[in-house]
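$ ./design --mode recover --in tokens.txt
reading tokens...
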């Protein structure tokens, strides 16, 4: 393989991963929220490492989606991830005075609204680029 073919191959992998990662990260956030709702002890949503890695991934994905001009429904998922990471960080750092079940229900409501908006954006625009 020539260098040009390898370069094109890695570009395709990069675009594919940048398109799929918001979906996978959103599913993992939903899993963590659901596990914390049922008091699963091994999931720590307020972990500083979770915030740093989560925020870094969200900023990277948002930058890549703008640079590559991805469609609206991918950006909705990225904004969902950003909102969750910031919300969980604020709860951990400043301890919001609500019960854990209420916090999880709020995160579930945000997830439901995001799912509805994502489906509507996909049905309206499909994979077309829309700024």
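writing sequence...
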């Amino acid at each position: 393989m020539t260098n040009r073919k390898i370069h094109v191959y890695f570009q395709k992998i990069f675009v594919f991963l940048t398109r799929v990662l918001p979906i996978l990260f959103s599913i993992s956030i939903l899993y963590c929220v659901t596990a914390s709702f049922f008091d699963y002890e091994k999931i720590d949503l307020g972990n500083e490492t979770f915030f740093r890695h989560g925020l870094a991934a969200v900023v990277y994905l948002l930058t890549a989606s703008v640079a590559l001009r991805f469609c609206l429904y991918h950006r909705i998922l990225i904004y969902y991830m950003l909102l969750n990471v910031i919300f969980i960080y604020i709860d951990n750092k400043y301890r919001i005075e609500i019960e854990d079940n209420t916090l999880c229900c709020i995160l579930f409501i945000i997830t439901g609204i995001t799912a509805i908006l994502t489906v509507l954006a996909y049905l309206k625009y499909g994979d077309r680029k829309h700024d």
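exit 0
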